[in-house]
Amino acid sequence: MIKTRVVVLVLLADERSRRNARRYLSTIVPASYPIILLVEGQQLTSRDLDRLSQADRVLVVSSAASLTPGWLDELLVISGRYPEAVIVPGSPNVNGPQRQVLEESQHIVTLAEQAEYASHMRRAFAGTAQPISYASDLVACAAGAWVQESCTSGPTTSFALFSSLYRHRALVLAQGSIAFSSEVKTKLIPGAPTTTPLLSLCMIVKDEESCLVEALLSVRDLVDEMIVFDTGSTDATVRIARQHGARVIEGEWREDFAWARNQTLNYATGAWILWIDADERVVGDRSALRLRLEDPLAPYEAYSVRIENATGGGLSLTNHFANRLFRRKDCYWRGAIHETVWYRDDQRSAYSVLQPDIHLRHIGYLDTEMTRKSKAERNLRISEVNGSAASEAEAALHEARSMTMSGRLEEAVALVEEQVLGSGVPLMERVGMLAISFWYRALGRYEQAEWAIEQLSEHGFHEYFGFHDRAHLAFAQGQFEEALHWIDAVGGFVVDRDGLTVNPTTLLGLKARALAALGRDAEAARVIIAGLAQGVMDVHLAELAGFMERGGVDVAELLAALPDDKEQLVAAQLLQVSPQLADRLLTELIELRPDDRTLLAAASLVGRHLEIERASYWSRVLIEHGLGQQAPVVWLATNAEVSIETRMAAAKEAVALGQTEVARVLDELADLERTPV
Q: Tell me, what's the pLDDT at 661?
């Protein structure tokens, strides 16, 4: 703690409060700090005014303030760093106004317009929140001479004193210090029963029968209620949601994601809102998250959640962070597309901090999901008429992103150049610059890509973002050694202040391809296999097989690294390579894991596309494992799309193997064999 002469000035509501105030303050103020008790509206004695003027720092405590142990430690530390500022603590029940005035980066901000802002806050939150005149009129730490001046320049009410103290001075927030209003203290006692649910799940859905169950099951032991707004499903989505305990509101779709999501807030009753989509699953420590949300002294209005995006076939992963948890009374959604959480005064997006307890697994970027939902076309349609974005630059950036999903890359670049870069909207400019560095490279405009990468540090990005893009740029130009240099320079996982991330695992595929281009196939294969052990395979199985074959890497290494929860995804990729390659890989894999049902199921499907000899081999293997009914020869014998000769041979093979269920088709096949097709 900073060694300084500190005086505590406490404003009291009335004379009767003096005795209780001294008893209370003795538990949270060091005995060496002089305490001055002043009933609001009365004047300080000349002796007390002298004590204030001679003090290095004075802690002003309003009559409405309740304090936590250790409340003044950080106030004094921060005041030592900013001697020309007034230091105020965090407060959970006025978190919104503070965040408007005092930004996350802790910059000093003047408060000349504070009264106008407070008036606006009271109007915006009428009937839904505690009306507090100022964001920080509970406690302040300031130079003694400033406090003495404030006490002699007008009435000594909290309103007048704090107003005078802040006038034409800067504020800095000490987040580690906590003060809250005694008017709501009874609602903030740890462990006290609450009158409303803690956490509500809010979802919007349409035709999600294929994935909704898993989403709802992933939150059933986390949330207190589930609110689902259906925008016009024609499948079993509504029935499934109700069967799993959700309250379903059957609504409509207005080409506006924020509008649809905000409908759920009309029915939710929880103090906090968790929002996910049907193609997301909650993973992590649910008990820890509930404890975090139950903390009455947490000064945050929202929390950011890590979202793990599975792409392509499901084995490539990217991560980003987004606001997915917020206080219901404080926040709502805004934006027809790529909607974000905003504070209810409409002046800013909600302030959020990272929480480590849960994360989301998102499957919506898988190839199958993108095709099923026609996401690219839908997003472009909405973005072109997006009238609820926070700025023209934001609307343009959303439209550009949608254009790239539809293959209109040149148009997207032109839109960002014209309406985002140089727009004067810092967040959109920095995100636009990061996006356009990738898009320039994809278009082969390498000099412009180099320029964009150089701008990243100017926009506040960690150096790893630049290293990441330089690696891709070098590879695109055939500079493989240089690409490897920049890949290795990305030394760890980094989260940008806006939730964007850089992760070395996303560069594993690029690294393998660079190694292979340099003739180092064995290293390339082992880079991918090592990534697979972490749950990531950033190349297709066919490409990995090529690395392994050319580098002499045994299949046993692949199998040893294969996590159980990724085996089905790898097996699915076996069905996407040539039947001959899949046959060869499966032969080796099943020799190592002869009873693996996932691999056997893949063999059953692959066998259908092989010559009769190999199909018969897999038939025998399957029968040995009790999977005779699934034998490929049965499928061959009964499939009218297969040639008569192949069907006849397969049927005879099946009968020889004991598959009597196909014997009945032999006569039909004999007739067909004599009939021209």
A: 46
